[in-house]
Amino acid sequence: xxxxxxxxxxxxxxxxxxxxxxxxxxxxxxxxxxxxxxPLIAMQLAFIGTLTADIIMVGRLGKDALAATGIGAxxxxxxxxxxxxxxxxxxxxxxxxLGAHPNDRARTRSAIRMGLxxxxxxxxxxxxxxxxxxPILLFLGQEPKIAAMAEPWVHAIAFxxxxxxxxxxLRALATAIDRQREVLVISVGQVVVVIVANYMLIFGNWxxxxxxxxxxxxxxxxxxxxxFFAMLGVVTLAPAFRKYHVLHxxxxxxxxxxxxxxxxxxxxxxxxxxxxxxxNAATLIMGTFGAASVAAHQIAMNVGSITFMVPLGxxxxxxxxxxLAAGAKNAEGVRRxxxxxxxFGAGFMLICAVVIAAIPHTLVGLYIHADDPENAVVxxxxxxxxxxxALFQLFDALQVTGQMSLRGLKDATAPMWIAGLSYWLVGxxxxxxxxxxxxxxxxxxxxxxxxxxxxxxxxxxIRWAVLSRRVP
Length: 472
Fold this sequence. Notes:
Blueprint: H1 2-8, H2 11-59, H3 63-100, H4 105-131, H5 133-139, H6 144-157, H7 161-176, H8 181-201, H9 213-237, H10 239-242, H11 255-287, H12 291-327, H13 331-358, H14 360-365, H15 376-391, H16 393-408, H17 413-437, H18 442-469
């Protein structure tokens, strides 16, 4: 009673309490988002860590080997993106189920089961596609020497594709029920496996054969297989997951759920393909300028990819948070979840932009011997590309957190068109025009990437602002 009277006679304190009440839901949302996002960010960093380990260790073999890994990664990443569409659909589907009915284990189990079915269906044709890596790379104008070097790496890593996709499906369950500590441990273990296997198989240490690029591809497969089987053990044995009985009646079809996963996953996958293949197309354009341009592009792209994992992890968390709120018919919760993710992602990437612009030479030195005269051109180009990468950090954060928030509402078709127009009508056209026609080469290509991301960021953010207001 005394507290209430004190507040009544103290308008300043009353205003402060009112502000605190207004801010409390946002603070609670921020805490929930970051708690969910932290392990997701770590997992995404672990994912890119496997590729980074390959790049850094392969870089010790020279610029040709680094360039071969770069164009080989284009091939592998394309197949992974095609397969990852249905995998991404599992997360919002499960979130909507649990948002509406928190104890619905049967439908949750069917969504995970059909996600694994989707991986089993789509992986074999994608792996077969990778057999033709060398002819495809030659057709796309890559240097014969570099294409030949990339071929064994692509052939080896193809066997890791189903494990990488399957791990993504199982991870969706952990994300939806907010149980990711085990997944984080597995992801860190995956990086350790890849680094150790790379050390053994690339250079022939500890009695292993020195396989060079082939060894790097095998190391990545071992990492993906470790992550999948470890996660499978967790979801079948750990108490928090065991109640869902993920493998129970595994061969029993749920055709409606499988159709939903493919129907929702197709435009999601296309959105990622539009974006990622712009960057991969940029790698192939770089290949026409020579090995030095490809190597420099690979270095700058990897730095940008590492920073991108943080807003991507925040975005993945936003998909779940928005999906749970949407499933519970909580319109205010939907809006809070999306905007909180967008603000946090943008804030982090602004910090990254400053760091990249401040120490580009130091970052390049992590990937290649910067003092070696033979690498002088690579270093010079990579520094220029990093300056442009610093400029598009903010745009990258806005487009991914906006797009992932839209996925939480199961809005996939409009983001697909936004991505297609932004990355290919704007981004690729400018990259080709400035890089090839105007003769700016690598710098022109990176300006095209910057423009594409800027348009996508505007489109995704505006789409979220409009659609989130319409949530009943």
